[in-house]
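Re-run with default settings, no changes from the original entry. Doing this only to confirm the output is reproducible before filing.
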Amino acid sequence: MQIHLLAIGKKMPDWINSGFNEYARRLKSTMPLNLVEIATTRKSNSQDSKIVIREEGEKLLAAIPDNSWVVALDEHGKQWDSKGLANQLQKWADHSSQITLMIGGADGLDQACLDHADQTWSLSPLTLPHALVRVVVAEQIYRAWSLNNNHPYHRS
């Protein structure tokens, strides 16, 4: 199984890149986690944020690989504990060899992205910076993988 993490935003702080890369490296040989960074749409003072969200949504939808199970990261999505996410990871693998996770920009995901998704996932009821979400997702995917593979990373 291969996971594609589509994320709005290209210029991330080094600590974000370092955090994501650490978990992607750990998964590389068994379940590649590929980050696809999509440029943020610049917003002028007179431009409505709905236009920005729509344009970013169009970019995300265009980047989804064919035959992919799509999961949108959204505050209204389903929340899982670590074992629940491990079960979901296995279910995603049963659906497709290509999994795509979508992270919107600072203003969130377009409704078209949510409508296209097979599932929505909420990391937390807290509001998280969209850059940080990619690190949290990578760590949680690694943790779920470790549970499914009896790896000692997760301690119950």
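Helices lie at 14-27, 49-63, 82-95, 111-116, 130-148. The chain has one domain: 2-148.
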